[in-house]
Amino acid sequence: MLQANVTVLQQNVLQLQNENSALNESYRELQFQNEELRNSNTELQSNNEQLKKNNTELQSNNEELKKNNNELYSNHSELHSRYSSLRENLTELTVRFRALDEYCPVINQLTQKRKCAVCPENWLGFSGKCYFFSNETMNWNASRNKCKSINGDLVIIETAEEQSFLIKTTKNKRGAEQQGKYWIGLTGHVTEKQFVWVDSRPLDVNSRFWAKRDQDDKFEPDNWTQNNLNGEDCVQLQVNKKYSGWYDAECNEHQKWICEAKPAGLQTEMKGNRKIQEQPTSDQEQNHRAPMKQ
Ligand SMILES: [Ca+2]
Ligand SMILES: [Ca+2]
């Protein structure tokens, strides 16, 4: 009996020993897990600190951006208002610069030196030259002599701009129904084939503005011989209802005339804001060119 109890006790002790071992094992395992959790916790705390720091930084950045945005918006408004004001200045300067070029053209491209034109009373200034439009009528020779007597000569037309200015001015001068006809400084006296300006230069083929006739849409010059067998040796600028430009005509016709002269030189800076007439626009009807009749 005693022996049997000892055996049972021994078995119990063995079992308890096994259980103790298992518990020890579990304890070690729990200690290990506990250690791991502590580490994780430390790490999470550190991450949390970092996130808090980042959040503070982002908030501060956000404030800064808001400030910058407001500043940019205010700069934009200011720039927009300055831009509008500059545009206004540009428009005004463009008008004034046109006047400057017309009355005081650049005479030296290198130094940009300008010379201002001063035209006599009743003469018009354009691009550094002075122009006189007569009200009387005379033949071509007498007209030329009149121009020479006032230190000029019949007009020599060199550019499309000059042609446009003359057309525009004669259009403004003529009555509603009246044709405008003006002698200019071009003749075909020497030979009909070669027109020559009053300064003896031949007509530049790139700068000629012969008219297209209103009645038959054909171009001048035609050296019309029906009225005079000598034909037509003198040239006039005509402003018609449809087309305007140069016509060859009989030199003995009595017509108005246009003189051109150099202005009195005055080297000065332009002062004030002189209001001037607008530059003539390029008007197609003023620029018809025809090959010369050979
Ligand atoms: Ca000229
Ligand atoms: Ca003719």
Question: Which key features would you list for this structure?
Answer:
single chain; 294 residues; Mannose-Binding Protein A, Chain A; two-stranded antiparallel sheet; disordered C terminus; binds calcium ion
Strand and helix map with partners:
Elements: H1 2-103, E1 106-108, E2 113-114, E3 116-118, E4 124-126, E5 129-133, H2 140-149, E6 153-154, H3 160-173, E7 180-191, E8 194-197, E9 234-239, E10 244-249, E11 256-261, E12 264-266
Parallel strand pairs: 7-11
Antiparallel strand pairs: 1-2, 3-12, 4-5, 5-11, 6-11, 7-8, 7-9, 9-10
Low-confidence segments: 266-294
Query: Which term fits the overall shape?
Result: rod-shaped
Helix content: 40-55%
Tell me, rounded to a whole number, the average pLDDT.
Answer: 85
Strand tally: 12
Question: For the CA atoms, what is the radius of gyration?
Answer: 50 Å
Q: What would the CATH topology of the largest domain be?
A: Mannose-Binding Protein A, Chain A
Q: What is the level 1 CATH name of the largest domain? A: Alpha Beta
Q: Compute the number of structural domains.
A: 2
* Number of separate helices: 3
Relative strand content: 15-25%
Question: Which architecture name of the largest domain does CATH use?
Answer: Roll
**How many angstroms separate the termini?**
161 Å
Keywords: Coiled coil, Disulfide bond, Lectin
Coiled coil: 6-82
InterPro entries: C-type_lectin-like, C-type_lectin-like/link_sf, C-type_lectin/snaclec_domain, C-type_lectin_CS, CD209-like_CTLD, CTDL_fold
Region (Disordered): 269-294
